Amino acid sequence: MANTVASSPSFLAFFIVFSLHQLSRGQFLQGPNYSKFVVNATEMPIEDYYDYIIVGGGTAGCPLAATLSENFRVLVLERGGLPYTSPDLMNQDGFLATLTETDAYDSPVQTFTSEDGVANARGRVLGGSSAVNAGFYSRADEDFYEKSGMKWDLHIVNQSYEWVERAVVFRPELQNWQSAVRDGLLEAGVHPYRGFSLDHEMGTKIGGSTFDSTGRRHTAADLLGYANAANIRVAVHASVERILLAPTSSPSGSKQGAIGVVYRDRIGRYHHAMVRENGEVILSAGAIGTPQLLLLSGIGPRPYLSSWGIPVVHHLPYVGQFLYDNPRNGISIVSPISLEHSLIQVVGITNLGAYIEAASNIVPFQSPARSVFIRAPTLPLYLTVATLMEKIIGPLSIGSLQLASTDIRVNPLVRFNYFADPVDLERCVSGMRKVGDVLRSRPMEEFKFREWFGNHREFRFVGPTMPGNQSSDAQMADFCRRTVSTIWHYHGGCAMGKVVDSDHRVRGIDSLRVVDGSIFNISPGTNPQATLMMLGRYFGIKMTKDRMR
């Protein structure tokens, strides 16, 4: 896995974006208050019964489980391990190390490269991608609620956000690079200034962060602290291999219903988790894991499943289709002045169909290998690097997912078809032009190097530079295509209205729902993690109310 990341051109740019590590390594190893009901899957019974079985202890799955446990017996099955045992993962200085020091089956991050050639990553740890991301927290935009296909009670939506925010959201303190980006965005016309805000508002704002003032990461797993410990069990290193389905004769007309799941522990032993009467299996394994598990369980396009020799339980043609990823493009510069380590804190929400974000870090510099002219330093050398990037809204370009293996541990084959829709490309061009406007603003002057002769000052770019003629649509479009990477906001694959209904039920299957980003047809606002955590809480409340009527 580590070689996949290091060899990808799109990830080389990322290396420069975020920093290496490392604060004190011992302070993060003490377990949080939810550790009393978390067990290794090897300690689980061979068979047990629950009201709700949640597959995936991630960004949506943890708040969903905590909420349902208030009234019902809940099992969470998480394929990864515990976040607080990894010092790198639990502090912001370890962000890059977490994303790059990976392996095939056990690391908190599982890397993959899409068929587009863009390196990407998935969370494989309790807390999911909220445990490995850049920590930015901002609520969804109004368009998301209108276009999501769900019927929202906005009062409960706001209550759910607040429930999340009390536990895991903090106000970041801006230092030199983030402050300069904020001022540069305002000079570049990204108005008005909103100050610190968790809401999605046009203009320039400081968003929330899941890193606290000490740099310690907080994740969706922290929301398990709200759970009723007597009603919940969380099994880690539990790899769910199949949904168990059985014939049913329900009023809904479905011929099959979920009755449980089969999962395997780290030593290869199989376990059965079964649902009680009126119980349900809920998939919260994310935009990659949820459609993959449906396909491996025989729910998907009949001809495709037959070609893999998978018995077809229910023909559902759109499983794995309508998959999306928001492309990211940007530039990185070496700074002549010392910069703080910062992940995303400031965002420019433009009217151009693009969001502008930034990061800064100190990156280790290595002299060329086997150089006869440069003597290797006895102490490490570091470069101070800053990055300015844009992410388009939407997107409109549609991708898909296919199996690469019948082994659930192997990443599926994913193609996102970046910029296949010309509107996405137009938005990237507009977003990168705005990045150019920010670079030309007065707050950016101090990040330029003075040339040896004269008073001329220039940026020192690391990696791709901005096109010379930024008014040229062709040059800017070429830049977008050449430098495309991901910001890890992929979604879809179990589209609302095609795979699930407005109550998140898998169409044609009783007692099986999906509560995660695989149901999204549009990315919520600037960054999805706030909305996913809200979704888990929101839908847990909704399911509880519906069942207790």
Main traits of this protein?
eight-stranded mixed beta sheet, disordered N terminus, single chain, nine-stranded mixed beta sheet, alpha/beta, 23% helix, 12 helices
Short description:
The protein is an alpha/beta fold. The chain is built from twelve helices and 29 strands.
Q: Kindly state the mean pLDDT as a whole number?
A: 91
Shape: globular
Number of strands: 29
Cα Rg: 23 Å
How many separate helices?
12
Uncertain runs with pLDDT below 50, 5 residues or more? 1-30, 367-376
Query: What share of residues is helical?
Result: 10-25%
Strand portion:
25-35%
The largest pleated sheet is described as: 9 strands, mixed
Protein structure class: alpha/beta
**Separation, N- and C-terminal Cα atoms:** 49 Å
What does this structure look like?
It is a single chain. By secondary structure, the protein is an alpha/beta fold. Strands 1, 2, 3, 10, 11, 12, 13, 28 and 29 form a nine-stranded mixed sheet that branches. Strands 7, 8, 17, 18, 19, 20, 25 and 26 form an eight-stranded mixed sheet that branches. It has a four-stranded antiparallel sheet with strand order 22-21-16-27, with helices on one face.
Secondary-structure blueprint of this entry?
Blueprint: H1 2-7, H2 9-17, E1 38-40, E2 47-55, H3 61-68, E3 74-78, H4 95-100, E4 109-113, E5 119-123, E6 136-137, H5 142-147, H6 154-168, H7 176-187, E7 193-196, E8 203-206, E9 208-209, E10 232-236, E11 239-247, E12 256-264, E13 270-283, H8 286-296, E14 299-300, H9 302-307, E15 314-315, E16 321-324, E17 327-334, E18 346-349, E19 354-365, E20 381-392, E21 399-402, E22 413-415, H10 422-439, E23 449-450, E24 457-458, E25 460-462, H11 473-482, E26 485-486, E27 491-492, E28 509-510, E29 512-514, H12 529-547
Parallel strand pairs: 1-10, 2-3, 2-13, 3-10, 7-8, 12-28, 13-29, 14-15
Antiparallel strand pairs: 4-5, 6-9, 8-18, 11-12, 12-13, 16-21, 16-27, 17-20, 17-25, 17-26, 18-19, 19-20, 21-22, 23-24
Helix pairs in contact: 3-12, 6-12, 7-10, 10-11
